[in-house]
Amino acid sequence: MSNILYTILVIILILGMLNYFNGGMEKDLAKEAISQYDIAKRNNCQGDAYIQAGLIAQFYLQAKDEENYRKWKEVEEKEKILFFNNSN
């Protein structure tokens, strides 16, 4: 019985490592950065929102998530326009 449990634990560990090294870490970082982006937006901090959007795009690029990368590049561009229009 303990050999079966050990084998299951090893499989779970291997699957977790594969997820981590296959973009899982970057996607987790992107989710955290999205949370920070939302805080910046709620507090009307245009510069912070612009920077966070760029970071999120980079995390998705590293994770090879093209769909979310494109989405956040568009958000970054919109935030850049808002930031530079409001800073005058």
Question: Can you give a write-up of this model?
Answer:
- The longest helix has 41 residues, at 2-42.
- The relative contact order is 0.12.
- The model has no long low-confidence stretch (mean pLDDT 83).
- The protein is mostly helical and 88 residues long.
- It has one domain (23-86).
- The chain is elongated, with a radius of gyration of 18 Å.
- It starts with a helix and ends with a helix.
- 90% of the residues lie in helices and 0% in strands.
Secondary structure topology:
Elements (H helix, E strand, L loop, with lengths): L1 H41 L3 H17 L3 H21 L2
Helix pairs in contact: 1-2, 2-3
Give the strand tally: 0
Structural class: mainly alpha
Distance between the termini: 70 Å
Count of all domains: 1
Low-confidence stretches: none
State which percent range the strand residues make up: under 5%
Strand/helix succession: HHH
Query: What overall geometry do the principal axes of the alpha carbons give?
Result: elongated
Number of helices: 3
Q: Helicity level, as a percent range? A: over 70%
What characterizes the major β-sheet? none
